[in-house]
Design brief:
This protein has about 290 residues and is of the alpha+beta class. Helices cover about 35% and strands about 15% of the residues. The protein has a 4-stranded antiparallel beta sheet, with no helix packed on it. Strand 5 and strand 6 form a beta hairpin.
């Protein structure tokens, strides 16, 4: 009976050890595949192996190695017998081997859990590199000419009332975060905000084309109401008051670009935007 029980314990210990070992291998494999560039189906299979091995090993441990109980033994005074002493020694020796076996399994369990915990750190890498100060800057610089998407510079005298153009800084027409809507507002239709008195020469104003809600392009302008529309989620920005949102989910005005007119009559930027463009983001610390 003791031999049969010992055989069962060796079998159960081996099964549990294999389960934890496979879980460990699955976690290590998942880390390697992810580091090499990833493959979704293979990553899913390895994740299944990692979690499945842990689950199977813990279930088998609870069924085969943990006391099942209840165990009751009557306490009675029995005469001393040499056979009882030998049986007690054998039981003690078997218990010691069981303790050693469980210590080994415990180490395997720790290795499997540690390997899986390590793989949980890898998705952080998918967030990409830290943006640093990139979210605070665009390609606009002092003196940069405003050009159309095909690269043609915009002359101030070529704009009529309610003209509406999408422009970029010269040489940077591939910079999506630098898109600006250029509008020539009718006389008396624009209220200059404090500190921006020289930002709209000859009634030409420029606002970021990136919606402050979800980053969609604000591509529609209704001259009759002086409203800019974002077609994605129907945010509406009222140009005469500094492109403040009047409807829709956006809560922040479109950033205004300080404009000027150079000696040749072309529309240029005085500087970059004075605030980040696009949707709001969580900022830690001060602006870099």
């Amino acid at each position: 009976m003791d031999e049969r029980r010992d055989t069962q314990h060796r079998f159960s210990g081996g099964a549990i050890a294999w389960a934890f070992f496979l879980s460990f291998c699955g976690s290590v494999g998942l880390a390697i595949v992810y580091t090499l560039g990833g493959q979704v189906q293979l990553e899913g299979a390895l994740l299944f192996l990692s979690l499945g091995g842990l689950a199977i090993g813990l279930v088998l441990w609870s069924h085969w190695l943990m006391p099942q109980g209840p165990d009751l033994e009557d306490r009675a005074l029995l005469p001393w017998d040499q056979r009882d002493e030998e049986q007690a020694e054998r039981a003690f020796a078997a218990g010691m081997s069981e303790i050693a076996r469980r210590k080994f399994l415990g180490r395997l369990l720790g290795a499997a859990v540690a390997a899986f915990g390590f793989t949980l750190l890898f998705p952080i890498r998918s967030l990409g590199s830290r943006p640093g100060s990139a979210l605070y800057k665009t390609a606009w610089r002092r003196g940069a000419r405003a050009v159309t998407p095909d690269g043609a510079p915009v002359r101030a005298d070529g704009l009529v009332d309610n003209a509406f153009l999408t422009v970029f800084p010269e040489g940077k027409t591939d910079q999506a975060d630098s898109q600006v809507v250029l509008i020539k507002v009718p006389a008396g239709a624009f209220k200059t905000l404090p500190g921006r008195e020289d930002w709209s020469p000859e009634r030409i104003v420029g606002f970021s084309k990136i919606c402050t809600h979800a980053g969609c392009p604000v591509g529609l302008y209704q001259a009759q109401t002086a409203d800019l529309y974002c077609p994605c989620h129907q945010s509406v920005f009222y140009v005469p008051d500094g492109a403040v949102p009047t409807s829709g989910p956006a809560t922040r005005p479109l950033p205004q670009l300080p404009l000027a007119i150079d000696a040749e009559g072309f529309v240029v930027a005085q500087s970059d935007f004075h605030e980040p463009v696009g949707p709001a983001f969580w900022r830690l610390g001060r602006r870099p």
